[in-house]
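Sharing a chain and its predicted structure for anyone who wants a worked example. Both blocks are below, sequence first, tokens second.
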Amino acid sequence: MNRFFERIFAKKVPATGLAVFRILFFTNLLLEVFHIFTYRKLIFDRVPFLESSEIALTIPLCIWMISLVFIVFGLFTRWATVINYLLILVYMSDLDMFEYHMDYVYTGLSLMVIFLPIDRVMSLDRLRRKIRFSSSKQEYEEERTVRVYAYFLPVLFGLGVVYADSVLYKITSPMWMEGLGMWLPASITQITICKDQFILNQEWLVRGLGYLTVLFETIFIFTFWFKPFRIPFLLIGIGLHIGIYIEFPIPYFALGSAFIYVLMFPFSWWRRIGSIFNRNSEYEPLHFYYDAECPLCLRTKWIIEYFDFRSRVDFVAIQSLPDQHELLKENTREELLDSVFTQYKGNTFEGLASYREVFKRVPAFWIFLPMVSLPGLQQVSAKVYRYIADARDTERCNEENCGLPLLRSPYEEKPTRIFRNLNSEQLEFNLLKYGVLILLIFQINVSLFSPYPKQWTEQMLSHLPERIQSPVNSFHNGMEAYSRKLIGITRHPVFMDGHFNKIRSFAVEYQQGDERILLPMTSAEGLPGEMLSGGTFVHWTFRVCYSQADDEALIAGLKRYTAYWLMSTGRGVEGQQRFRVTTRSDRPVFKWEKDLLTENLNRPWEEWGEVVWVDGEFDTSRQREL
């Protein structure tokens, strides 16, 4: 075991894949949070808009989204990841009615990335460090590699343990053991968003996908470490999650999981991708002449070089120009040092025009082109540039008046000694080893009570003295509660037989005079509507309309969703606002049948009754008995 940790700690690989994962995964989380923000009154209020939540919503959720933008761009990354994790604990870990299984992946990985070097490359923090730790005498170059465990850990805890626990449920499921685990949910109208029946009618294909899912999830945690399995697992995993994205209204789960697979790309791919982006442009570069002894000029050079990954701008130190250079025929060297000059194919540009030429060639700077090109804005930019240039002429910038102190980088390659027998590298290794073991213990504590091993776990506990059983159970329950909330380690009974025993769909239609509007929980075809995605889909489907939910849960859900719709559309709950409610029960079949989805779509809707808002009060007296 120790040798395994030493191997994944010692090996260094390109950091590009980790950066791409950061950008994709946290963009996906940003979209998830934006969904929560959009429906915040529905999710958090006791009664949307009428009985508000006890916690603040708008400003903290905006701060959360801003922190995610910072993570995506790699700016103040460490602080942004801490803020993101804390807000997850407040606004996602306690969602309760609106939680769904992806929330726990967000929680665990958001905690993990606080300690991983996700900003090593493709981040604004890398540029900040270069500017901070460089001077006119020495240019700081940070390594572009990370330890390989930074790739393995998110895959292990974002996919591996999730699959392993899920399999402990699937192998006790007749539906999954018959190969129908993909087919049946896709044949239920309240679950699927795709009404295409062709693939579902290919029995061998859907059974094969069901069995492949069980086999894949069973062996994944034991084999993804090994190079020969990575590309096959990469293709299977991304393929399965693309299918989930197409088939079910949980897009951010599908995309978020697929983005974790980015970390399984062969490292040679990242080297090739990096070489493509860093390849010199086939076009003649713009020659940018700069003062190599001016720290502010060097800052400008470093910033442009950082974003100019195609090398469209070539920097030339004025001090290195020979006396015969064509620029020195028309200008003295002092004049060149006091302004900015560029050249392209014999044309010379000075001052603001030089920056305009740079902006044209570097896509990251295109946003600034209107400032230096459009009438009005161009004149303002010229005055600003002239003011800066004149100030610089007054006191020429050098190491004495605007120098950069040469500071120690936090990514110093040499280990820092902390105690006599412990340095920073040894501390990192111990944190890795014991941290992983502790997390696995938390997962084992949870998975021992999953359906398959539960009988043996309970049998072992039954042999313990009764005075010991109670503390053991309390300890287990406490560990499970804290691990679920703080690190996202929990059970994963996703799409099991009991979810489909007696499916009910409900459609709610607003009726006012001649006006008829179908509320967006259901589409016109009878599939999940545009309001249902992720947590809202799980809440409406399994906690409001679920076959085993009692009528109180259904009525509370109708009250919540109708109040939200009325208030968010500006109609209000005053006067009399009527809603017609219809219901339809799909026919779940645990043996494969052709055209089951089509049959369920064609099943008739039945009247359930009517709910009415009367002067702010919710009336359900016009319902029928189910």
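Comments welcome. The mean pLDDT is 88.
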